Amino acid sequence: MNSYTDLVRVGVAGATGYTGVELLRLLARHPGVRIAAAMGSPGAAPRLVPSLKSLWDAPVDGLDLDALAESTDAVFLALPDQAAADVAPSLVARGKRVFDLSGAFRLRNAELRQRWYPGTLEQPPAVVYGLTERNRDLLRDSTLVACAGCYPTAAILGLQPLLQAGLVNLSGAPIIIDAKSGVSGAGKTPSERTHFSECHGSLSAYGVFDHRHAAEIEQELGTPVTFVPHLVPIDRGILETIYATLEPGVDEAAIAATLHAAYDDSPFVRLTGGDLPEIKHVAHTNFCDIGWKVNPRTRQLVLIVCIDNLVKGASGQAVQNFNVAFGFDERLGLN
Amino acid sequence: MNSYTDLVRVGVAGATGYTGVELLRLLARHPGVRIAAAMGSPGAAPRLVPSLKSLWDAPVDGLDLDALAESTDAVFLALPDQAAADVAPSLVARGKRVFDLSGAFRLRNAELRQRWYPGTLEQPPAVVYGLTERNRDLLRDSTLVACAGCYPTAAILGLQPLLQAGLVNLSGAPIIIDAKSGVSGAGKTPSERTHFSECHGSLSAYGVFDHRHAAEIEQELGTPVTFVPHLVPIDRGILETIYATLEPGVDEAAIAATLHAAYDDSPFVRLTGGDLPEIKHVAHTNFCDIGWKVNPRTRQLVLIVCIDNLVKGASGQAVQNFNVAFGFDERLGLN
Amino acid sequence: MNSYTDLVRVGVAGATGYTGVELLRLLARHPGVRIAAAMGSPGAAPRLVPSLKSLWDAPVDGLDLDALAESTDAVFLALPDQAAADVAPSLVARGKRVFDLSGAFRLRNAELRQRWYPGTLEQPPAVVYGLTERNRDLLRDSTLVACAGCYPTAAILGLQPLLQAGLVNLSGAPIIIDAKSGVSGAGKTPSERTHFSECHGSLSAYGVFDHRHAAEIEQELGTPVTFVPHLVPIDRGILETIYATLEPGVDEAAIAATLHAAYDDSPFVRLTGGDLPEIKHVAHTNFCDIGWKVNPRTRQLVLIVCIDNLVKGASGQAVQNFNVAFGFDERLGLN
Amino acid sequence: MNSYTDLVRVGVAGATGYTGVELLRLLARHPGVRIAAAMGSPGAAPRLVPSLKSLWDAPVDGLDLDALAESTDAVFLALPDQAAADVAPSLVARGKRVFDLSGAFRLRNAELRQRWYPGTLEQPPAVVYGLTERNRDLLRDSTLVACAGCYPTAAILGLQPLLQAGLVNLSGAPIIIDAKSGVSGAGKTPSERTHFSECHGSLSAYGVFDHRHAAEIEQELGTPVTFVPHLVPIDRGILETIYATLEPGVDEAAIAATLHAAYDDSPFVRLTGGDLPEIKHVAHTNFCDIGWKVNPRTRQLVLIVCIDNLVKGASGQAVQNFNVAFGFDERLGLN
């Protein structure tokens, strides 16, 4: 366990977006680190973050790769995909440990990368997929961590142990993931889709059969899924309703036993059983809440998974990955 | 076509709840009717409806069955299930045409009624299920109309033509209906579930494998469904995301052709194809918007259906049923 | 009274913004008009308005001034200020009656126009300020109507009769108007201020001592005001809380008598007295609700005024002005 | 400074309401305390708090005054006013230090208590008004702390230094406090007023000239105020827009200098000057943000003050008071 004798010098690139500000908020009170650099876009004038006043009062500077590399031990990238793809390899080459929140390094298959993240064909040799609960061992020796996407975090945490235990029947239609996300998941850039008057009082599906997070989920689960995301009028939070057919004889108790075995040592996964989780219980936290119901007659499983997309779905998970990578208690700075 | 020479004298029982007020709002500007009675609970003191000031200024009185029957030709019941079950038969017996918005008369199977609406075992002989687009012919001669539930309205309008045309493969897992509803669907009685601070910024599933609307949907579609409703932080509106496996060879064009054939003469069903519907386009209207996407590789159909739960899902549909029953243009008072 | 024998041919310029779409929605069911033209920005490709499908199915074309003038008797301008300033005079010169929803023609003082609407120095000779309840007589012979702004509509309707009757003491600090508006008041163009995640769960003041609607209110009331607008996380609606000191001896009854005398013949002003108005009762309507409380000890008046900013504060009022101008019943198409 | 060698044993009575749960959330991660008792209403069955799972997993028991007194050094009361009035004196008599979040002990004037909190006529001898920034010295020796109300916290923090410095002219109309509050301020008990469908998309004023917080503000400021609270559709947060007339010659710089002198040593007051504060920057924090604008022509001051009503307006402030009372760093457990 890290003994805190030296503060780790961390940097945040892309510190003015929603995930970047959340990273600063978390790191500013993390007892094991010192924020040595906070940078926005290249060439941007220094600016303060009003909501962090008194918590962290230094300005966010324009992106300067050399200054970033020189002043830090570890770097969090909260940049657009392409910018992250451009920047990460050279930081790794300089010996920095990189925690990337973009999608640039998540897909291992080059064809899928070409489709969903064109321009990220060159990949560093050793990328660890940064879903803490799955990859703790790999994270310890990681140099470049591709932190899991928000939708995939919820889907994989819910489904992976059940698939691994063989509880789900995969011979019929694909597993269905009906996902509902708050608007902050669409990022900070204004658009018609994220205009208050377009979202308030409404609800819509998007990206049906055509969302890159489906590829990420399928990669990690090893099975096709039908993934339909929806935009709901809340700021933070994802709730996924997952539908699968169980193998004969699998009941709620078997689901419970498998999930408890998988997560009883994971401080941020809370199993709620038949008391189905709600977004309000995970908002502003790093928790992932999982509940479930089984219909014995039809062998249908309904799994409900909730996270805060900006915390467990992005910045909190990045810090959790960082904690494991640097030998800190996994919970440090996250409670 | 009704020639408007005589205004139909209508009454509303249960006129202070959300659907009751919406009925008054619609009927107050309906050119073919005169509101002859508006009543709340038995024994309630007369009260005005502030939001209807200048539109309809008479007080809502306490429920008085005799006065109701004597003053009206047609009665809309926006009462709790049991109260509707108690009141409707005697109104029918007195020759009134009754449009019931409760669930008391929707289920034809006595066992299911016993489970979901205990105390409604006695049923009048001729009940018409009041989903206008399905039952126009039956509505013309109806005496008691059991207006369709809000969730069933969206599900049946979306699925029924496709099932009837044999486009859906029913041999595997049940059709999945992932439904999202605004909070007004839970009625006006305050509760922890409908408290603003419990709903705002949150999202939750409820009634999984245990909701009486599933029985109603299954009755009308003739096939089992997995139905999971969710409470979303909006006031009005339902969006249902429906997942089904198609028969081999069924593509988006076939879906489109079947739905157009079913609804091109239905003024309140709007087919949006691949431009998926959103709640904001149907809120405060009697429209039902239906869009769809097909994944040819997996033969998965995703159907998106939107309605306003208080209008097409309740009061608007009741007026639409009334219009057909009394020979008015189906759209009268609803645009 | 107009006898409806000929439908008035109306055009809408700027038909894709929030007020433009609301105009189309109202005009599409107005029994006295035919929408002869609906145009957006110059050069824009024709596009349908999805939310109006089945209500009004023609495309919105690019702005073409000649075609607009040739096909219409009356034109509604829902354009940006400068565009309206450029277009209106030539339409008037061609004999069209113009109802402008922008601010270009509202201020009579050239210096104030120069400050708040630079580039609108040239003004047509006869502009009528389009607050229906104040200017019914002038509207009848109008050629160019500068429809009142949203905030001024509420403030003037509440205060003007009281000021005219001399009930308000003006010797101390200015009258205070604390205004709260829904986000649609900021228009449809996406911006950081109107991003869902910036508005949801938040509240902010803006334009303090620096908002052009203060000048408009002061022009119509003839007295200085302190005006502070706030952005609140709702889509539609304005609530203004107005603070004034009363002359000695003025009590709630005097306020009531004066407002009733002013508005008892105005179908869209509803006086609620001590039952203070709420936005939900006016949303999606053309009503202006006014309530009040007086503290006899301090002679403080608190006036609460509510409107829907897109209806009575914009498109509804424009149609109301049009109705008066063309001799229709003031309420036509607005209930 | 407290050296943390012994954890303070704290109890929370009323631990299931919004402020009670917020207290548990804060105290569970406070390094200087151990939660020794968490109790709800008398006779209530033990129940877990789902949102605190993994943070604090003990059940909330029914209220037992003896057990509470025996197990704790300090008690937080998050009870209804009357219950707090009944319980606090005996806890004080047993030597417990009590931090009361109700209104029972806030008003020093017996007549006003009789009007606003009837049944709280008996008052313990030494009550400290618990607004930390005002009463740090008194808090150190306190036995019973009447934590400030939510609205008063914002109003007093904004106005008190300006009044004390004589910057505000008090000869004319009273200072006006136009307050906007999230719905959690109304507590957790369901009611029509707090029903989601009544609040969503709406806005309303209430308690005009008739709110007990006006008495509390007037007591602390020593001058009459016109106080109008509004309910806005957000969960957490208060924004107050305060209008006052300044003495001649007082400009923005004088306001700034006075507020900086008052608060530069107060870690939870952030002065934002002309960048007016917004609720989103204080939500879920213990900060009080204060901004201001002055109109030199009319000598009008507009002061904007924001807090989170459940944190700085209730539970956070109670913990801050506790920290001062027990010699901890004021910020402990609050960042």
Q: What's the SSE blueprint?
A:
The structure is a homotetramer of 335-residue chains.
Chain A (H helix, E strand, L loop, with lengths): L7 E6 L4 H11 L4 E7 L25 H7 L2 E4 L3 H13 L3 E4 L9 H7 L10 E4 L5 H5 L3 E4 L2 H15 L10 E7 L14 H4 L4 E2 L6 H10 L3 E7 L6 E8 L6 H12 L5 E5 L14 E8 L4 E8 L3 H15 L10
Parallel strand pairs in A: 1-2, 1-3, 3-4, 4-6, 5-6, 7-9, 11-12
Antiparallel strand pairs in A: 7-10, 8-9, 10-13, 12-13
* Class derived from helix and strand content of chain A: alpha/beta
Gap from first CA to last CA of chain A: 18 Å
- What CATH first level of the largest domain in chain A would be assigned? Alpha Beta
CATH topology category name of the largest domain in chain A? Dihydrodipicolinate Reductase, domain 2
Q: How many domains make up the coordinates of chain A?
A: 2
Low-confidence stretches of chain A: none
Round the Cα radius of gyration of chain A to an integer and report it: 20 Å
